[in-house]
Amino acid sequence: MTYTQLALLGVALTVVLDLMVLRTRLLLRRTFWVAYGIVIFFQLATNGVLTGFEIVRYSGDAIIGTDSPTFLGDGRIVYAPIEDLLFGFALVVQTLIWWVWWGRRGVQYRPLAGPPVWRQRGASGAEASGGDACGGELTP
Amino acid sequence: MKQFAYFGVLLFIVVGSGWLELGLRTNVLRRWRRFVLSVAPVLMLFLLWDAYAIASEHWDFDQERTTGVTIGAGIPVEELVFFVVVPFAAVLTLEAVRSVRGWSVGDEPPGDSA
């Protein structure tokens, strides 16, 4: 199989794992998409270095584009093959799925994250301690 | 120094996301067993993918910009570190959003709002 085919398969398996197998439903949550927006920005930056300086090199036979890194176009985005976005999605989302799954099973659910250092611990009530449990749902 | 180029990128990922643990109290290191359990299946899968991709010549690595140390199947040690550091950064980012916004992630026990 080509990298393009494997990357699409990786995304499909990840979506099935989240919504049907483990039912973590991470892909339906606002929390995830905000975090993923941050992740993808830094992925483009770091992957741009790895591919732009040709630390990692791709075969034109395995990807949509050719083997020469272009900043934008020829199946590339910030020098990286667009397949890398799918690869990164599978890597990041699968990790987060397992993280949520283990937490839900009670494996080190605590200590919870936060509050940030600039907020007093215990002060400002619900805001600092987690807010509305349903706040992260995109769907009812 | 050139051979540490890939490691330089890995260091940037660790530093760029690691401050969240201190600044936003993401508490991921204190939940390291949960992280190990989460990253293990992903690490296995992606090392297999890497091995297949290298064997199939989907991608290869610049000998001058990597240390040349491999962990078997032609996989550079940098790739092994990548498949731990990137998931770590991802969990930190998710927990950082939870820290700042207080939104749920889906691991909350029923009726637990904190």
Give descriptors for this structure:
A: 140 residues, mainly alpha, flat, B: 114 residues, elongated
> Helical element count of chain A?
4
- Give the count of helical stretches of chain B: 3
Helix content of chain B: 55-70%
Q: Give the H and E element order of chain A.
A: HHEEEEHH
* Helix content percent band of chain A: 40-55%
What oligomeric state do the depicted chains represent?
heterodimer
Cα end-to-end separation of chain A = 39 Å
Global mean pLDDT of chain A: 90
Q: What shape does the CA trace of chain A take? A: flat
pLDDT < 50 stretches of chain A: 125-137
Largest sheet of chain B: none
Number of strands of chain B: 1
Q: Nearest-angstrom radius of gyration of chain B?
A: 17 Å
Indicate the proportion of strand residues of chain B: under 5%
* Shape, per Cα inertia axes of chain B: elongated
Structure, explained:
The complex is a heterodimer of chains A (140) and B (114). Chain A has 140 residues and is mainly α. Chain A has helices at residues 3-21, 30-52, 83-104, 125-129, and strands at 56-58, 72-73, 76-77, 80-81. Chain A has one domain. Chain A is flat, with a radius of gyration of 19 Å. The model of chain A is unreliable at 125-137 (pLDDT under 50). Chain B is mostly helical. Chain B has a domain at 1-30 and 61-100. Helices cover 60% and strands 3% of the residues of chain B. In chain B, helix 1 runs parallel beside helix 3. The mean pLDDT of chain B is 96. Classes of the chains: A mainly alpha (140), B mainly alpha (114). Strand 1 of chain A pairs antiparallel with strand 1 of chain B, so a sheet runs across the interface.
